[in-house]
Amino acid sequence: MLAPPLDSLGKDMECEEQSSDSSLDIVIKWNGNDYDVKNLNTNSDVKTLKEEIFKCTGVRPERQKLINLRISGKMAPDECLLNTINLKTGTKIMMVGSKEEDIAEASVVPPKREKGRKCKSYDSEDFDEERVDKMEIHLAKVQNRVDNYEIKMLNDPRPGKKLLVLDIDYTLFDHRSAAESGLELMRPYLHDFLESAYENYDIVIWSATDMRWIERKMTVLNVTNNVAYKIMFYLDNAAMITVHTPKYGVVSVKPLGVIWGKFPNNYNKHNTIMFDDIRRNFLMNPKNGLKIRPFREAHLNWEMDKELLYLAQYLVEISKLDDFSKLNHRNWEKFIKKGQYKKEKRHKRDRTDSNEPKPPDSHPKL
Ligand SMILES: [Mg+2]
């Protein structure tokens, strides 16, 4: 089948054929990168285009979904000639698709563990997570959010800063307890934590509720217009995706790929960390998530809860690293204890060497 009749063509395509000898250069956007496909003959078809894309991306033609290559409102079929589609040199085509090796990796059945022997790198939960984040259907949903979710910027990204993504409910705020004012339910040290984090991180707040509630809560807590730090933007439930896992069933999760896809030059898996009290929200990015202890029963726990105080310290410590992907955030407390130990040892040595009094310790004792 060739192109459909002219009267069936939608607004998103051009009906006129271009000259028979013309060629064009287009750009394929995939996985946050641009790939140039040059000297495409406009008399060739979509199948030929996909073969060219395969050469530069490694994604097989049958795995490619060219999201905005459309005819009559539908994705252009392989037989469709390029000269019937509104393509011009420089046109950017969004692609979703996975390479064979990634799909194979996602389909691997975890090996049976020997009885009584612990697997060093993974537990059963991790296997679910590893599989989910590479599934083509989920990556397509992420790309959809990158293409269609509109971010209302409050402040611009700052060059060289890392990215901190924060949940609200039970992470920054006890949203269930009764109180005269929202401020009574705010997690202790919230503003100190955000002010400290802002030095090294651009901050995004992402909550599984709608934007009106997020804006209202953040205004009540005096986060939105705080002079000591700036929030880059808020994300709501519309930026989340649903995934299916054997462990949790169908659940909504917070894929960081949405932010990475929107800001490919600023943020990636190497410089992003997300805090949430629900681990399943990290399913698409298990290595970038840190599960925070939930802050509940604010009136009872106000005095004791120092989670944000210690986490501020962790963020300072890891901000010196070039790559977060080698960290295991489950061990964050051990990490700062180790750092604290090293500092104390250094101070002790300096004191002995210089015979000077010990400098005041600005870090919290653990
Ligand atoms: Mg929460």
Automatic annotation (TrEMBL):
Record carries keyword Metal-binding: yes
Ranges of Basic residues composition bias in the record: 338-349
Cofactor requirement: Mg(2+)
UniProt-listed InterPro entries: FCP1_dom, HAD-like_sf, HAD-SF_hydro_IIID, HAD_sf, Ubiquitin-like_dom, Ubiquitin-like_domsf, UBLCP1
EC number: 3.1.3.16
Recorded superkingdom: Eukaryota
Region (Disordered) location: 338-366
GO molecular function: metal ion binding; protein serine/threonine phosphatase activity
Protein name: Ubiquitin-like domain-containing CTD phosphatase 1
Organism: Sipha flava
Name of the gene this protein is made from: LOC112680787
